[in-house]
Design a protein that fits this description.
Blueprint lengths: L10 E8 L2 H12 L5 E3 L2 E6 L2 E7 L10 E5 L3 H10 L3 E8 L5 E6 L5 E6 L2
Parallel strand pairs: 1-4, 5-8
Antiparallel strand pairs: 1-5, 2-3, 3-4, 6-7, 7-8
Length: 120
């Protein structure tokens, strides 16, 4: 197997779809032992031991069927090209979610949803 130098930096972000943001926030705050770093009606994010744990209200309506792990990559377009060449299918093309952070999702051959994230 060949690599092109666009290796991942590991899973650093996991987003969870939630239906009741207040109830989910109470559970995740207790689990992680820290207050949210970002606390907005559209997203609650925690920084815990180098990982970003996010709660996405209405995530199911956005097509999230469960938690999505995001691999951090230096070049999102290059990584998407690599995984699609290997048989993955792009689900959501790269989009800026603020601060120059780009996210995209794709599915593996079994339909599992995986994410890639690039910080600028």
């Amino acid at each position: 197997m060949t690599t092109t130098g666009s290796s991942t930096q590991g899973i650093k972000t996991v987003l969870h779809p939630v239906t009741d943001l207040a109830a989910a926030k109470a559970v995740y705050t207790a689990l992680l032992g820290v207050a949210p770093q970002s606390d907005e009606p559209y997203y609650v994010g925690y920084e815990a031991e180098g990982q970003q744990i996010g709660l996405v209200p209405g995530g199911a309506e956005q097509g999230m069927t469960g938690p999505v792990a995001y691999w951090h990559v230096p070049d999102i377009e290059a990584k998407l090209a690599e995984v699609t060449a290997a048989g993955a299918k792009v689900k959501d093309s790269p989009r800026d979610v603020g601060g120059g952070r780009l996210v995209a999702t794709f599915t593996d051959p079994d339909g599992n949803v995986l994410g890639v994230l690039q910080d600028r």
